[in-house]
Amino acid sequence: GSSQEDFLVRHPDESEKPWQDIGCVRYLNTVGYPYACQLHGVFRDEQHTYVVYSFATEGDLHTWCSGGPKPSLESELQKQPVCVEILRAMKQLHDSSVVHGDVSL
Fold it and tell me: What is the Cα 89 distance to its own chain's centre?
């Protein structure tokens, strides 16, 4: 849909809320939150809505975590810096009184 209201009417059982996500990222960009992708714009044609974010060169977090060595001490040490970064990002949200939902990959 072309708006959050339109999306909710068309997809009443959907748990994802893309328009809300876009608004949150836009707010985080506005306040200079360093851990969010940059929202470059939302564009529409007659059939589709396109959301343009900064490019994540390593792909999404789930894909990155699923790759690499099989679960082991080595794989945990490889992922540890990213986990620390995620915890820093969440702490900054909490310190700024920003409420988030479940956190998952």
Answer: 12
Return the exposure string of 63-92: e unless at least 16 CB atoms fall within 10 Å of the residue's CB, then b: eeeeeeeeeeeeeeeeeeeeeeeeeeeeee
**Model confidence at 1: pLDDT above 70:** no
pTM, rounded to two decimals: 0.73
Secondary structure percentages of the chain, helix, strand, coil, to 5: 45, 10, 45
Report which secondary-structure segment, H or E, holds 57: none
pLDDT for the residue numbered 40: 96
Is the Cβ–Cβ distance between 22 and 51 less than 8 Å? Answer: yes
Instruction: Give 22-48 pLDDT, tens digit per residue.
Output: 999 999 999 999 999 899 999 989 888
